[in-house]
Amino acid sequence: MKDVLFSAIAGQKADYIEIRLDESSSSRLTFRGDRLEEAGRSASTGGNVRALVRGGWGFVTFNSLDKLEDKVALAVEQAGHVGKEDSKFSPIAPATDVVAAEFKKNPVAIPLSAKKEILDEYNRLMLGTPEVQTTSIGYADTQKKVTLATSEGAFIEQSRIDVSLRLTAIASRDGDVQQVGLSIGSKGDFAVVENLHDEAKDIARRAVALLSAPHVKGGTYTVVLDPILAGVFVHEAFGHLSEADHVYENPQLRDIMVLGRRFGGKHLNIIDGAAVPGLRGSFKYDDEGTPATKTYLIQEGILNSRLHSRETAARMGEKPTGNARAINYQFPPIVRMTNTYIEPGRTSFEEIIGGIKEGIYAREWYGGTTSLEMFTFSAGEAYMIRDGKIAEMIKPIVLTGNVFTTLDNIDAIGNDLDMNQGGGCGKAGQSPLPVSNGSPHIRIKNCLIGGK
User: What whole-number distance in Å separates Cα of residue 243 and Cα of residue 425?
Assistant: First the structure.
């Protein structure tokens, strides 16, 4: 295979060429209430050629290696039609490596019928809870092998296994509808989706409890976020702003995201990195062959770096960070997050809530939107904090504000980092890409809460 790929690249007149092959197999199970909507396995094999000529890109996908030289030539021709300037592409040392998939309990070895039996049990437990009207369950596992060959001489074979599960219980009463969900994932360990019977019963119970919870009065509160909601916040509200293609293409964002600018206290450190081992966003090389890194986006409150592909790094005069990722062979690599989190501090949870006379404890996530530095997020659950103690449950709240003001208003960071490995990230039509995000508990002063 190596000789075939390098032979197809040889002799082509381009500043850079890569061929990426993608072999994957997956299984999926989806429930809506008591109805099994999807159950099946699929497999795909394909590849692409990406060529850089005078700053322009050509991109060709294929499902057969027949006449591969012609496909490389077509990508080079495409790039030549659009290229009008000098190519900018950061150099890296070309690697030759084979990276085996990491797994503990391999989901690929588990029959689809056995997976369905497990999910049936969770579904029965949720649907058997009084006032739970329906449920939603989505399970997926994927085994993937990606082969990369470049005109610089890199040849990397990298395999991975990914597992994800989302359970949701939906309760209703007198026109009021509430839901609670649980997202779980792993890098190749089916065991994480087993033995969740207590968790399935618990999310159903909490969904029903929300029906009786009162609304909070809207206003400004001190808010404590749990690791899951804080992780979603740092991913959605700040992580995407750190992707260098967004920054490079948006003059308004370039004026905001100035390296060296202070965005928080010295206790605030935000990291993204695939070199953090064992997580769903972890890998050894990105899809351009750049080794994984651990990047401090914010270090001691100061904007320290951003996330790069080789092209954005060259265009902005910075170093590549190993964040060029493609969801499959049908797409070129673009700048994406990997494992994004707030680094833990030294404060216990009891100390975080201890000084709050009246505040809100927000947990889990439901949804949200961002627009540049403005965000709106819905928590999955919320509780009042009264006199330093967690008090009554309230209806899920909506948090809104400016991300940079909010980062500056984080005045306490816990010592209890937890990573959320459920779900996936979407960008430019490529979704869901395996990532993880997390945080310790964090306390935010002057947080605007929507209520009744």
Answer: 13
Report the distance separating Cα 366 and Cα 379, nearest Å: 6
Q: Are 357 and 387 in contact (CB under 8 A)?
A: yes
Residue 392 near residue 358 (C-beta atoms within 8 A): no
**Cis amide bond preceding 396, omega within 30:** no
Domain termination site, one of 187, 212, 237: 212
Distance set, CA 335 to CA 3, 222, 277, 427 (Å):
29, 34, 20, 9
Of 269, 271, 294, 295, nearest to 410 (Cα)? 269
206 and 231 co-located in one domain: no
Which residue, of 193, 212, 231, is where some domain finishes? 212
Q: What SS3 state is found at 129? A: coil
Question: Are 132 and 170 contacting, i.e. CB atoms less than 8 angstroms apart?
Answer: yes
The mean of the pLDDT values for the chain is 96
Q: In the structure, what pLDDT confidence band is assigned to residue 423 with cuts at 50, 70 and 90?
A: confident
Q: Whole-structure pTM over 0.90, yes or no?
A: yes
Residues 424-452 have a mean pLDDT of: 92
